[in-house]
Structure formats: structure tokens, C-alpha cells
Amino acid sequence: MSRVVALGEEDQVLPYAMVGVEVLALADPMAAPAAWAGLGDDVGLVILSRDAAEALGQTLHEPGQPLWTVMP
């Protein structure tokens, strides 16, 4: 079974924990690449804050990456 992960600043991702999403809260969006690299192969969807998505840049578009979306 795939996991869903929310990755970004704590105030933006913490509410997702209430619906069973695993939360990876970042003190600094520049920590997003390290957190992304640590995602397991069982992650099927990553919900990103805008700042985390910007910090990840082209990494998001590399082959083999999990499905992702950016918070509105």
C-alpha cells in the first residue's frame, strides 16, 4: 500500500495529519531536497508547500519520482 506524505512548512502541512497523511515538517524550505531524497519507495503521493516545491525545482520532474502536487 502506498503512503501519502505532506512536505513543507509545519503550519502548512500539520493539518494533513488529521486525515492520516504522514507529515514531514520543515523548519526551512531549503531542507526539502534532503527530505525528498529520504522518501521511501512506498510513497505514492507527495503534497508539497509552494516553497518546498520551489526548493525542489527540476528534481520533481526527474524520471521515477513519486506523484506530487502543490498546495493551493
Number of strands: 4
| Estimated share of beta-strand residues | 25-35%
CATH fold node name: Rossmann fold
Rounded average pLDDT: 96
Q: Major sheet: size, sense and barrel closure?
A: 4 strands, parallel
**Architecture per CATH nomenclature, i.e. the level-2 architecture:** 3-Layer(aba) Sandwich
Task: Assign a percent range to the helix content.
Answer: 10-25%
Number of domains: 1
The class by helix and strand makeup works out as alpha/beta
Quick recap of the structure?
The chain is 24% helix and 31% strand. It has helices at 10-13, 32-37, 50-56, and strands spanning 3-9, 22-26, 43-48, 67-70. The chain is globular.
Secondary structure elements and their pairing?
Layout: E1 3-9, H1 10-13, E2 22-26, H2 32-37, E3 43-48, H3 50-56, E4 67-70
Structure overview:
The chain is of the alpha/beta class and 72 residues long. It has helices at residues 10-13, 32-37, 50-56; strands at residues 3-9, 22-26, 43-48, 67-70. Strands 2-1-3-4 form a 4-stranded parallel β-sheet. α1 (10-13) links the parallel β1 (3-9) and β2. The chain is globular, with a radius of gyration of 11 Å. The mean pLDDT is 96.
Give short descriptive properties of this protein:
alpha/beta; 3 helices; Rossmann fold; 4-stranded parallel beta sheet
